[in-house]
Specification:
The complex is a heterodimer of chains A (123) and B (315). Chain A has 123 residues and is an alpha/beta fold. In chain A, 42% of the residues lie in helices and 21% in strands. The longest helix of chain A has 13 residues. The radius of gyration of chain B is 21 Å and the shape is globular. The chains are: A alpha/beta (123), B alpha/beta (315). Bound molecules: S-adenosylmethionine.
């Protein structure tokens, strides 16, 4: 069965790049442009993986993650932050909130692939 | 570049470092050597080539050799060998070296340090199970420049994102100037970096329980590969292990090593206990290999490491 990845980023360009990479890795891909939209998506169905930006309008990535982890079954998706925030404080906060991995932008396909492999996601 | 000039360099490199250069690599040669010529004040590569034919300055030869090395590496490169190290090799050594409580590892082409640091982090994570043990990693390379980088242990954002789990970045690195990541002294301290050319006699290095020699034999010709492997066999404890890179093997190159069945990428000596059928000797270390039907169970889960991600329990 195909694994689903939700890409959450307010930049269309980033979503497009990320979509291409995760599709190449063998995921099917859905997109959300902010935390709120991602939350609504997850109420419908839980993806296997979520690539998550930090700074977004309406609801930030970290707010979304906290809410996600409180949902029924919200522990199941592997969440990888993917953000320009590149300091230890942000990283620690993300991991404490239940992120599985953390990517500091700029990223490339190799980094995304290696991060997915590390958390044991092989579509 | 003239063919005769190419031959001068390819002969020099083959004798000095074992590097085999085929003629299709002439562009690589030129692009790597032009900066060397400039550094040494030659107005062209041709003038440097002429200088080389006399009695060349030893340091110039060193610079040429170093310029031609490929230092490509990453943390947890290929991942599986490090799982193998943690789940099988270490688990075996824990029993087998139970009285000496000492494990010596040789990283034979350490490059900028990612491989020895990966091993050191794995050992650190497993430390609780090894009270009073001494781990030593001897990390060698032919390039002085790359060894300096390895010693510094300072990595770019890009480098720390290739293969390194975020938990380990958080635990063992500090951020410097926003863009660089410095590995901790705790991880550094069991590693001894030193210059070593794999073509030289290896006796002075002592004996090792585990040798990592990954992604360097690929640059050598068959004869050199065989010679290096023969030398390493003499440096390995009778029940020790050799790990090679994904594209490397011992087959057809040496009689001193054989592949360990069911453990891809792991090689042992022909008389190794790991090749014997398993005999239950209570208290003795049980060898790896063909005799045991099931592979040893993973050491512990205290290890937030891939692929059995167990990240949530790490507080
Ligand atoms: C591609 S790197 C491999 C790094 C690491 N082992 C890995 O697998 O990622 C190859 C390294 O071998 C070193 N090397 C090449 N020839 C050598 C020789 N004759 N003796 C020792 N090191 C050598 C190079 O300087 C380079 O750093």
């Amino acid at each position: 069965m195909l694994m689903k990845c939700l890409v959450v980023d307010d930049s269309r360009v980033v979503r497009k790049v990320a979509r291409r990479i995760v599709e190449d890795l063998g995921f099917t891909c859905d997109e959300a442009e902010d935390g709120q939209k991602a939350y609504e998506f997850c109420q419908g169905e839980m993806p296997d993986a979520i690539l998550l930006d930090w700074n977004m309008p309406i609801m930030s990535g970290i707010e979304f993650l906290e809410k996600l982890r409180e949902m029924d079954n919200g522990g199941s998706p592997k969440v990888i932050f993917c953000t320009t925030e590149n300091d230890m404080n942000h990283i620690q906060r993300a991991i404490q909130a239940g992120a599985n991995e953390y990517i500091m932008k700029p990223f490339d396909s190799e980094i995304i692939e290696s991060k997915f492999a590390q958390i044991g996601l092989h579509p | 570049m003239k063919l005769t000039d190419f031959d001068i360099y390819s002969n020099l490199l083959k004798t000095k470092s074992g590097l085999v250069l085929t003629e299709d690599k002439v562009y690589l040669l030129e692009s790597r050597l032009n900066p060397v010529a400039k550094k040494w004040g030659y107005n062209s590569l041709e003038t440097m080539t002429i200088a080389l034919q006399g009695v060349p300055d030893k340091n110039l030869v060193t610079d040429i050799v170093e310029a031609m090395t490929t230092n490509e590496t990453s943390f947890f490169r290929d991942m599986r060998p490090f799982d193998m190290f943690k789940d099988h090799l270490l688990t075996y050594m824990k029993q087998a070296r139970g009285s000496a409580r000492r494990i010596r590892i040789w990283c034979a082409a350490a490059s900028s340090g990612q491989e020895p640091y990966t091993l050191s982090m794995i050992l650190k994570e497993a430390q609780a199970q090894y009270p009073g043990w001494t781990f030593e990693i001897v990390a060698t390379d032919i390039s002085h420049d790359i060894l300096d980088q390895a010693r510094a242990g300072l990595y770019s954002q890009f480098e720390v994102q290739r293969g390194l789990p975020i938990q380990l970045l958080m635990k063992y690195f500090t951020q410097v100037d926003g863009q660089k990541w410095q590995i901790s002294d705790d991880i550094k301290k069991i590693i001894k970096y030193q210059y070593f050319n794999l073509l030289e006699p290896m006796t002075s290095l002592g004996t090792f329980d585990i040798i990592f020699c990954r992604n360097v034999l690929i640059y050598f010709n068959e004869e050199t590969k065989g010679m290096v492997l023969d030398g390493m066999a003499k440096r390995l404890a009778p029940d020790g292990f050799l790990m090679l890179g994904g594209a490397e093997t011992v087959m057809g190159l040496t009689k001193e090593f054989v592949t360990l069945p069911d453990h891809r990428g792991v090689y042992v000596l022909p008389n190794s206990p790991h090749l014997q059928k398993k005999v239950e000797t209570p208290g003795a270390a049980s060898p790896l290999g063909s005799g045991s039907a099931t592979p040893a169970a993973p050491a512990t889960s205290a290890f937030g490491l891939p692929p059995k991600a167990n990240t949530t329990t790490n507080s």
